[in-house]
Amino acid sequence: MQLPKRKAIFLDRDGVLNVDLGYTYKPNDLKLVDGMIDGLKSLTRGDYAFVMLTNQSGIARGMFTAAQVESFNNELLRQIQCEIPNFKFDAVMICPHHPEGLVPEFTIDCECRKPGIKLVTEAATKLNLDLGNSWIIGDKDTDIECAINAGMRGIQVTRGGKQYSQSKKAFAITPTLREAAEIILKH
Ligand SMILES: [Mg+2]
Ligand SMILES: [Zn+2]
Fold first, then answer.
1. Fewer beta carbons within 10 Å, N or C terminal of the chain?
2. Domains with residue ranges and CATH for the chain
3. Whether residue 14 lies in the annotated active site
4. For the segment 55-99, what is each residue's pLDDT rounded down to a tens digit?
5. From 14, 20, 139, 143, active-site residue
6. Which ligand is nearest to the CA of 98?
7. Largest distance between two CA atoms of the chain
8. Does residue 12 carry a catalytic annotation?
């Protein structure tokens, strides 16, 4: 017997959850994006799995380690749970690679760096996800590309600290996760 598949929200990290300062990794630099908590609160009323999906090429570039990324993510989750005690990520998917890195083991042209979809398909298998009814929320056009490549819809947010070019393929472009959540819950 097959279990019903779950819908998911894939959340880019920098610029969606925490303010993107550029290669942000120090817990002291962690600032939550305005509207993010409101958005997550709304989305937890739907029956979604939550997956953090983040490119962290700073690992390949030797700017910080995977352990430092994990510490930052733990602090991020702690701060979210201060506001939404039941919140959890069903999976945290991190690409540490970059083709022009400095750390040999991470310096590859991988298939998991967004817009690649390897981490999406891994999460989909592990969590039994219905990607056709799932979403990516990100601040870069590569987040939206990743959504399209994986058969999902993508919403681009614009007030996460950095300004990136607007995606032409985004289902919607909104200031923050708050407005993105309203759109998702209507579809
Ligand atoms: Mg981002
Ligand atoms: Zn990768």
1. N
2. 7-186 (3.40.50.1000)
3. yes
4. 999 999 999 999 999 999 999 999 999 999 999 999 999 999 999
5. 14
6. 2
7. 48
8. yes
